[in-house]
Amino acid sequence: NEAAMDQAEKEALLKKDRKYLWHHITPHNDNPMVIVSGEGSWITDADGNRYLDGMSGLWCVNVGHGRAEIAEAAAEQMKKIAYSTLIQSHVPAIELAAKLNEWLEGEYRIFFSNSGSDANEVAFKIARQYHHQRGKPSKHKFISRHRAYHGNSMGALGATGQAQRKLKYEPLGVGFTHVPPPYCYRCPFGMTKGECEVQCAQAYEDAIRWEGAESVAGIIVEPVITGGGMIVPPDEYLMRLREICDRHDVLLIVDEVICGFGRSGEKFGHHNFGVRPDIVTMAKGLTSAYSPLSATAVSAVMYESFKASGADSHFRHVNTFGGNPVSCAVALKNIEILEREQLVSRSAYIGNELLKRIDTLNGHPQVGEIRIFGSAIGIELVTDKTTKEPANAAVVSAIIGGCKQKGLLIGKNGDTVPGFMNILTLSPPLSATDEDIAFIADTLLQVFEANGGG
Ligand code: PMP
Asked: Is there a single domain that holds both residue 80 and residue 211?
């Protein structure tokens, strides 16, 4: 505990925290963990306790903590010029837009904003305007999935398919409908994994028909539903959605806010499925969260209609901070690190290695299923493997608490219906060392062993 903060200093800080700070999405807590530093996969709190950051913050610190060269890139850019709008142009935004095209392996125009929610709002607005400009103004609806999370602002929350996050805040942005998720473990269509007709994809086509294709602007999907419980679709699902979109002149918007920048084991999650989206939204791993930045990548073909002559064809959208030069410089350095250290393939390695090491958990009476996408892992807890009744909150808390006690932070997610937050989540930094991987796996095995054997 040599790095511990002086106790009087810590108490003074907590006093101010209790009085002034509003914590995100959590019940009131007078004793929050106060994080003071980080290095690699590890973070340190005010008491000097070290924890392996098994969720990379909120699935975002892809290159790990404490990268001095990112701080230096930010300082250098701040000294040159810290702010310029994107009504004009600036060097880091130009370079980053070009680099993102390389990563996307397609031709896209890049619109910069501040957060993942922003990036999705921009996608919805651009999609609607695009249809207007093609003489199809009635195409305005978006279809999403139940269980999906797409952000906290009124439109992005409208697209979100988790009831508990929306209650008390309605009415939200209108024009969003939802279809069942491709949740093979609890198939909404009563089918068995690997023996179905991918009815979950067909549900999208049915919804488009029932809503009327002439009213549908686009569908939005994450390659894998991450925050809603690590729901990995059948291999052909995304390709089927691409075909359905093409048949009905509907745009395919892929939300890569979590799956992008290596988390999937490829550069982007849609690459895992060989699909080309019309719009790709990204945030988190774009800067590894060292600075706020998001992007909406729009196919070059779509952009043509925004280039057309006439005063009304431009996208009437601006935000002060979007594409901030410092954030763009941070993103460029972050991507340079991802490339130099080959962290995209490292991500796939980390996932596979973890899966191998925790394989015996499949025999644990309360592990229903372990699901993986790149280096993102979900462990679905049940009270009974046959009935699949979700594990109760006490069991989930015991595992998460046990891990924390041993110095491993993991997440939980699920349906956000009380009692159904039964999926443990892991998404460690892509820079995690072999020792880090062993620590995560050993800790999980020990904690599960102490909670019901394995
Ligand atoms: N889309 C997805 C898939 C996300 O996971 C998140 C954030 N967890 C968002 C959008 C929203 O991003 P932000 O919190 O930056 O607004």
From this structure: yes
**CB-CB contact of 297 with 108 (8 Å):** yes
- Kindly state whether residues 79 and 46 are assigned to the same domain: no
* Judgement on whether residues 272 and 151 belong to the same structural domain of the protein: yes
d(CA 53, CA 67): 15
pLDDT at 236 (0 to 100): 97
Q: Is 337 in the pocket of ligand 1 (CB under 6 A)?
A: no
Structural domain of residue 169, as residue ranges? 68-340
Question: Is the domain of 333 the same as that of 373?
Answer: no
Ligand 1 atom with the smallest distance to the CA of 222 is 3
Please give the pLDDT value at position 420: 75
Is residue 186, in this structure, part of any structural domain at all? Answer: yes
Atom of ligand 1 nearest to the CA of 116: 12
pLDDT tens string 103-118: 999 999 999 999 999 9
pLDDT at 454: 47
Q: What is the DSSP letter of 264?
A: T
CA of 384 to the centre of ligand 1 (A): 32
Residue 2, in any domain of the structure: no
For position 4, what pLDDT does the model report?
A: 87
The pTM score is 0.98
47 and 76 belong to one structural domain: no
Residues 272 and 251: their CA atoms lie apart, in Å, by 19
161 Cβ below 6 A of ligand 1: no
Structure confidence at residue 299 (pLDDT): 98
Q: Whose alpha carbon is nearest atom 1 of ligand 1?
A: 150
- The whole-angstrom separation of Cα 44 and Cα 33 is 10
Residue 383 DSSP label: S
Which residue has tokens 């991500």?
347
- Check which CATH number belongs to the domain holding 39 and give it: 3.90.1150.10
Domains held by the chain: number? 2
Mutation pick for ligand 1 pocket among 25, 284, 416 (CB with most ligand atoms within 8 Å) = 284
CA distance 237 to 199: 9
- What pLDDT is recorded for position 312? 82
Q: Does 418 score more than 80 pLDDT?
A: no
pLDDT of residue 110: 98
